[in-house]
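Reminder to self: tokens first, then the designed residues, so the page reads top to bottom the way the pipeline ran.
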């Protein structure tokens, strides 16, 4: 009986709430309701007019409002307030069709645009400010991206100072693109990144289905940036350097670590050249680069990230300088192991034939990346002469291959061959 009374009381409470408009704002000017920002005396956020879906639609949130213009400032009781944000749930279920968001907005709360299915236009006045908006969302919540204007509509067009925004040039003042900044911008076709950009946030370009061109302006900056995954993953876009399609890449001298996803799914990349100070290949760094045919992996590489060359199905030749087989971490998964030739230091062929990952290559062939390097320090010099003398005269062991002239025997003629290598 006690439970029955509780159920009846709950039903009556819901009925009462459904029949009344519940206001939670501090003041209202025109169509928009506002809340004061606690601890910030002159700042306010736009908020919702009703937090209940009523049986009477005229009591619903922003009923009858189709075009929203959020001002930079608002006057109330003789005081001017800066509009710095949009509260959580502000426009949920609202029938708005267009919205203008000023550059003063720094935050947009969770579910702010949930079920705004009629929204078709977003107007902004400052692209740098837009890139810097904090979306207050919980990534573990499957509805969390409803803080974005595009959440409930596939037909939202963006305008910058009245002009359609399909080709975005990130201003030089922007050093970080915040998470969700361009989430589900179906109208976005190309983006140009400035050289000052340091990071791209989570899901910043997720579901930008029509993005077909990414233009970078500085190769060093591109390698030094974080968040390539958040731009390139799931897109079939081409990568350009100063508006020239990237087909050949020479890793800049100052770069020692190749970032994760840096050239992910780049179908136009044909050649990449590493210098001998690169020590790390990031995971998925060149995954999906189907046009790559030849790789030379320098001896300096000490770590190959997970699936770094995954689905590089066009590879025909891989030249490895290292005497010791690295852990591949499935770097070459889905390679054409039967038709891709693996070239390794001649005296290390057997090492690679039995090394995990490398043994999947059918054709493993010897080559000589460092002629005369007897002690395996990746350079031929006087220490190799001493190593050869010690072997011949003192019968000391050798780290590498001392058959310098390749006649199948180690003797004095190899000393002469080594001197010729050093003196030429």
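Designed residues (424 positions):
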């Amino acid at each position: 009986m006690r439970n029955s009374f509780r159920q009846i009381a709950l039903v009556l409470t819901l009925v009462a709430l459904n029949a009344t408009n519940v206001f939670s704002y501090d003041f209202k000017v025109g169509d928009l309701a506002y809340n004061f920002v606690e601890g910030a005396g002159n700042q306010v956020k736009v908020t919702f007019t009703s937090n209940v879906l009523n049986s009477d639609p005229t009591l619903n949130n922003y009923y009858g409002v189709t075009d929203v213009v959020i001002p930079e400032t608002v006057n109330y009781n003789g005081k001017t307030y800066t509009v710095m944000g949009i509260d959580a749930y502000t426009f949920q279920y609202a029938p708005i069709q267009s919205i203008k968001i000023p550059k003063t907005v720094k935050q947009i709360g969770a579910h702010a645009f949930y079920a705004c299915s009629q929204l078709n236009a977003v107007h902004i006045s400052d692209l740098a400010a837009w890139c810097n908006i904090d979306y207050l969302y919980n990534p573990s919540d499957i509805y969390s991206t409803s803080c974005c204007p595009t959440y409930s509509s596939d037909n939202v067009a963006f305008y910058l100072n009245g002009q359609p925004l399909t080709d975005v040039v990130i201003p030089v003042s922007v050093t970080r693109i915040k998470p969700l900044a361009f989430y589900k911008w179906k109208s976005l076709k190309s983006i140009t990144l400035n050289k000052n950009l340091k990071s791209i946030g989570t899901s910043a370009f997720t579901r930008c289905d029509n993005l077909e061109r990414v233009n970078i302006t500085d190769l060093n900056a591109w390698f030094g940036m974080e968040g390539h995954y958040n731009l390139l993953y799931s897109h079939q876009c081409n990568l350009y350097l100063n508006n020239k399609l990237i087909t050949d890449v020479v890793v800049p001298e100052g770069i020692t670590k190749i970032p994760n996803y840096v050239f992910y799914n780049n179908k136009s990349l044909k050649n990449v050249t590493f210098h001998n100070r690169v020590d790390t290949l990031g995971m998925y760094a060149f995954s999906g680069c189907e046009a790559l045919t030849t790789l030379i992996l320098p001896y300096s590489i000490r770590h190959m990230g997970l699936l770094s060359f995954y689905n590089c199905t066009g590879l025909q030749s891989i030249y490895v300088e290292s005497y010791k087989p690295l852990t591949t971490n499935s770097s070459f998964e889905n390679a054409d192991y039967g038709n891709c030739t693996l070239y390794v230091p001649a005296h290390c062929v057997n090492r690679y034939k039995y090394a995990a990952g490398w043994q999947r290559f059918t054709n493993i062939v010897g080559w000589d990346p460092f002629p005369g390097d007897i002690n395996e320090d990746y350079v031929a010099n006087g220490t190799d002469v001493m190593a050869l003398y010690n072997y011949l005269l003192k019968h000391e062991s050798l780290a590498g291959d001392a058959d310098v002239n390749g006649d199948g025997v180690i003797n004095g003629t190899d000393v002469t061959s080594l001197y010729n290598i050093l003196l030429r």
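Residues 5-22 have pLDDT under 50 and may be disordered.
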